[in-house]
Amino acid sequence: MFLKNAWYVAAWEHEVAHQLLAVQIIGQRLVLYRTDAGAPVALEDACAHRKLPLSMGTLQGDHIQCGYHGLEYNMTGRCIRIPGASKIPQKVRVRSYPAVSRYGLVWVWMGDVAAADESQIPLVEHCDDPQWGRNRGGSMIVDCNYLYVTDNLLDPSHVTWVHRSSFGNADCEGEPVEVTESPQGVRAARWVYGGEVAPFYRFLVPFSGPCDRLQQYEVRYPAHAIIKALFTPAGTGGHGKPLDERALVMDSYNFLTPISENQTRYFWFQMRNRRADDEEISKAMDEGVRKAFDEDRVVLAAVHRGLQHAVSQPIDLAIDRAPLTFRRNLGRLIDEEAGAGARASA
Fold first, then answer.
1. Which of 58, 190, 197, 202 is most buried per CB count within 10 Å?
2. How many angstroms separate the Cα of 190 from the Cα of each of 5, 174, 179, 287, 343?
3. Domain count of the fold of the chain
């Protein structure tokens, strides 16, 4: 099940040029391109005539020409030419989806066009702050349902075992997690006091010795995660305390786009408050993050297969409170949306 009235990342901006790009989002096939003026366009990837994918056609200026019988569609999805026909019926059109470029990504609204609100695209803090650096980021296909990824991104404890050589260490194993809800999503957070800096962060932390660490995992509906990692000298961390000038803060932005019930495209990048202009640091972060997310990818694909072929029911533990809360609330939003749609069409 998917929430339709939401923004999903369709592609990186550099992937969307003045040429046709086929993508799939929540089971729907779209074709993307950029106009001569640079605006992103997202249309249903199926000609109204015989449903040949429009991505198999060609661009004629800012219009798509179907590769089967030459029907042409403008940026709104309206058919503007049928070779050999003097009149074009109004019903000859394909669906158009609102598309927006932001933060180096192309976002597409998959639901009711009238409800599309750009202010609902998650805010990336510090994106224009010269004191903060950003690594390029990346994306990957994960062979699992997107909810297994949201489960993972609301679980601070898994880093102890899945990411021993990067994000985690033994200090992350047992501290209790505080779970909070908001209209936007669910947050799981905890402080770990007096531990070691995890391997991935050592080259970024500007102090030596033990640290206090904040693990803050937040997932917003339908599937956008903002993860804050904060390392500060031992004794300076904790709820309500001012940020120590030596602290490292890294915000990881993770945008999940369900391709289908069985695949997810995972987009990410990170912001940091240290060495903002250091390109070598950004490159090292890109390499390290991709390696760590590859560890998640392998585990989550195996979890998906395991649950598909399970011979006994999986159990839930106390550490699952945040993921289960998110699933429950998202399911309610999906049901409410479906109910509203059914009433509107009755």
1. 197
2. 32, 10, 9, 27, 43
3. 2
